[in-house]
Each structure stands twice: as C-alpha cells, then as structure tokens.
Amino acid sequence: MTLLLLIEQGLNGLQLGVMLFLMAAGLTLVFGIMDMINLAHGSFYMVGAYLTATFAPVFDSFALAVLAALPLAALVGMAVEVVALRTLYRREHLDQVLATFGLILFFNELVRIVWGPQPIFLQPPSWLAGTVEIIPGVPYPAFRLAIIAVGLAVAVFLYLLITRTRTGMLIRAGASNREMLGALGVDVKRLYTLVFGLGAALAALAGAMAGPVLAVQVGMGESVLILTFVVIVIGGLGSVRGALVGALLVGMVDTLARALLPTVLRTMMPPSQADGMGASLASMTIYILMAAVLAWKPRGLFPAHA
Amino acid sequence: MRDHGRETLAVLIGLAFLLALPFLAEAAGKGFYVTLFTRILIFGLAAVSLDLILGYGGMVSFGHAAFVGVGAYAVGILSWHVFDGSPLMTWPVTLEGTENAFVVWPLAMLMGGLFALVIGAISLRTTGISFIMITLAFAQMLFYLAIGLRKYGGEDGIALYNKSQLVPPIDLFDRTTFYYVCLGLLVAFLAVCRRLTRSRFGMAVQGARINERRMKALGFSPYRYKLTAFVISGAGAGLSGALLANAAEFVGPAYMSWQRSGELIVMVVLGGMGTLFGPVAGAAAFLLLEEWLADLTEHWQIILGPILLFVVVFARRGLWGWVAGQGREDR
C-alpha cells in the first residue's frame, strides 16, 4: 500500500515538476539573454489559463483551445516587451522588479474586469477525463499523465531548438555576448522580442495545463511564480538544464513532503497537531531545500555564466 | 549637488505639518485622516528601515514585509495568551502573555532582527537577481508558516482585544495619542538611521554598494557590514509591525504577503532611495494615492500599475529629490 502511494505521489511530483519547468524555462531564458527579471511572467500563466477556459466551450475541444491560446499569449508577451519592458533591459534589477510589479497589478485587475472575480472551472478533455491503470491496482488520472508527457515533449523540443537550430544558436550567442551578436549584424531587438514571446507561450501552456487541475483564478500566477523563482535559484540563473533539474527536484520534494510529513509526524505526536504542523512544515520544505543548495553552491547547481 | 539648506527646510515643514495634522483634521471634522496618517507613519517607518538596506546598502530585499509581519505576530501572539489565560510556554521557564508595550515592542524588534539575521546570513551569500528571489522566497516561507499557525487563527489571523499598554495616562485607544506615539517613534528611528548612515559603519555599507571589491581591498569584510545593516533594518520593520498590529487591532498572514513587500519597495523608490526622509514621503504618496484611486473606481489597481511603470521609467530621483533638490549622493 505504501509503495503504491509512493508511486502515485511520485507521479504527482513529476507532474508539478514539468509544469514548473515550463514556467522556469521561459523565465530563465529571458534572464540569461536579456539579464532581466520579469515578475509578470506569472501573468502570462494566468492569461494562458483564462484564454483556454474561454476558448474550450467555443471550440468544444480542449486541445484546440490550447492551440488558440498559445499564439495569443505569445502576442500579449511580445506586446508587453515592445511597449513596456524594452526600455528596462539596461536598467538596474530594482527598476525591472518595480515595473513588472506594476504590470502584475495591471494584468490581475484587467483579468478581474474581463472575466470577473469568481474562479472558473476548466474541464479536462473528455478523452483524458478517465483514469489509467499504470500498474494493476493503481488508477491514475489520464490528464495528469498527459501533462507529464507534454512537459517532457517541450523539454525535448527546447533542447533541439537551442542546440540544433539557427535561432537556438542566436539565443546561445545572445546569452554569452549581446554586443558582439549585434555587431555581427543580428537584429538583437527582434531576437529579444521573439524569446520573450516564446517564454510567454511556455508560461501560457503551463497555465492551460494547470487549468483543469487547479482553479482558474486571479492571482494564480503569483504562487507559481514564486515556486518558479525557487526552481531557477536552485538550478542556476540562465540555465535551461538547471531549470529542468531544479523543477523536477522542487516538484518531487514539495509533493512528497506534503504527502509524507503528516504521516511521519503522526507517529510522534497527536494526529490533530501532526496534521497542522506537517502541512506548514511541508510548505516550507522547498525553501529549506533552496537554502541548503545555496549554502553549498551560492550560484545554483548549474551556473550558466560560470 | 546636495542642498542642505533646502533639505532641512523640507524636513522642518514636513515635521510641522505632521505635528499639526491631528488638530487640522479634527478642526475640519475629518478625524478619519488621523487614522490614515497613523498608517502612513507606520508604513513610513517600515519604508525607512527598508531604505537602510535598499538605498544605502544596495540590497534589493523583496521580503521586507516578512519582518513587519514577525513584529506584528510578536505582539499578536503575546496578546492572544493574555486573553486566553494560557502561558506562552512552560519549559524551560514559564512565560505568560503580556500587553506591556515596554516588553512587546522591544520584543517585536528583537524578533524582527533575529529573523533578519538568519534570512540575511543565507541570502547575502548571493547578489543581484538571486538575492531578490531568495528574500522573496523566504518571506513566502514565513507567510506559509503563519498560515500554518492554527492555534493563532491560521489563515484568519488574530483579532486583538486590547492594544499594548504604555504608562497609565497614555491610552493608545485614543487615536490622537496613538498618532503622536507613532510619530515619536518614527522621528526617533529616523534620527538613529541618520546617525548610522553618517557613521563609519554607514560609510562601509555604502562603500560595499558602490564597489565591493575595493572595500575588500581596504580590509573591510562587506558581508558582515551588510548583514549588520540587514539585521538593524529587520528590527525597524519589526517595530513597525508592532505598531501596525496595534493600529489595525488585528494580525494576519496577509501582513507578510509578497504584495506588501512590493509596496514597501515602491514607497522607497517613489520617495527617493538613500534619502531616509524620502521613503516617508513615498509612503504618504502611495497610501494617499491608493485611497484616492480606490474612491475613484473599484478597479484602481489597473491605474496604479501603469503609474508605477511610469514612475520607474521617467521619475528616477523620487519625490524627495524633487522636494529637497537632491538624489542619492553618488549619482
């Protein structure tokens, strides 16, 4: 029984991990190439979820809704980059924090005006609504398996994009030396906008996939954003590989701690106390993990500009 | 260039206004403003403490609200035990709850400083964006910890049945009295900070911001100076938290939310970084703007957001630079 529980929670952890990876990849790319901290990245996640929830009943298909939401979210991202963030690349990080903090307020309120303050519930597609028996006797929601598959596919796609294509080559070049890339005649501005759009689309994908698992509501972007920060700090700023490792680590540790800590504590103290303490200890685990990693390696596990 | 005459004048006018405010408000029949300006003074205190590390030390802490919350909870938890009648702890010594301001306010500062010591010791190993993210993450951790405190209301927080007690004739339930107590503490904290920033210690902290490598070459250990500044800043935030708990007669996890931390940064930058007086003006501007916009429309954040963006892009020196003709000295 315990082993089955462990397998199930392990899959949950993997699912949270790939979701965090979708967020972290975009954020870390933007950081690596433009040296920019973007708090509004969580807003793209939220926008992706809302757009999917809006399109799903229209097209009567979850997959089509996601396909329609992604380019739109990418457009929103690129518009934000061109209108607001472009002037901030050479500014201090503090300015970027403030400006994108302002953007979060703006987006949250905009969504509240357009879709209202009530959470929206998004149904998973009917063909993924059931459960799959991964091993005999362990049913697992098919939609969560699909999230894992999509996340891993995106990881492969990003790997190929970055290492095998001309765009990827430019992204890597931009990360190591912006000025030189511009001097070689590459339109750096356009590259930045493109990368920003890509990051926004990935965040929107994460939001769309999270929609049926969590509620679609205002402020959903911020909680995942802070987790994403933890992922990036653990993985090393600017490193996509670090983002993957960090995301899986954080996803696993968080999920397993939430599942196991209350049980473990119950052996030591009365159940009512154990549950309360277990829950709050569990939500602190990843921050303790982060502190431990930083104490060991202040620049994260895979520092990009070592 | 720094214009000392003009700055002194601005400080004196500001102080005179704040001293006269309760009379003006009561005379105009708008006692509500006393309460609003009490909030401004309290957030001003928190913003000044943040300016110490943000403006002078160049440490962009995105988790400053956590220390405010720690201070507030110190007051709230001890007050809860007074009401409940149970001791805070029985081992190794028995500690009862208390509402004595001479005990709980210093304790709030001590706890703020202590948490800042632990969080700062780890966070200051990093710089730049990592530092921003880590301070944010630690603040979030304390936020969840507060939610997990089921004994003390969990997500709902603690409603205080009584305010802190000073010496008998001073009654903090009287809003004018409480206002002047907050004003006095703010002025005292400003005086301490001003001395600190002009001392050898303050110079070392600013030196570490401007050129850390050179400071090391001069034989200073920037890490220790920065950590000390971080702890002092946390203690100041703790004090403002204690006052905030008294002002709202409520303590809750929302005090530590990341939006609060963001707002504190906004106040400092809006007022002018590294000016100490500026953040007070920034707190006033921010809270008054919030008040005004909230009156205007329910969706006031949709206006506030772009205003922030605008301030960042176009008005870098902050209000204080505009009022007193100065920005940060090294710019």
Task: Explain what this protein looks like in three dimensions.
- The complex is a heterodimer of chains A (306) and B (331).
- With 306 residues, chain A is mostly helical.
- Chain A is built from eleven helices and two strands; from the N terminus they run H-H-H-H-E-E-H-H-H-H-H-H-H.
- Chain A has one domain.
- Chain A has helices spanning 2-34, 41-59, 62-85, 93-115, 142-164, 166-176, 178-183, 188-210, 220-235, 240-266, 271-296, and strands at 131-135, 138-141.
- Chain A has a two-stranded antiparallel sheet with strand order 1-2.
- In chain A, strand 1 (131-135) and strand 2 form a beta hairpin.
- In chain A, helix 1 (2-34) packs parallel to helix 5 (142-164), helix 2 crosses helix 9 and helix 9 crosses helix 11 (271-296).
- The longest helix of chain A has 33 residues, at 2-34.
- Chain B has one domain (17-269).
- Chain B contains 13 helices and two strands.
- Chain B has a two-stranded antiparallel ribbon.
- Chain B is globular, with a radius of gyration of 20 Å.
- The model of chain B has no long low-confidence stretch (mean pLDDT 88).
- At the A-B interface, helix 4, helix 9 and helix 11 of A face helix 5, helix 10 and helix 12 of B.
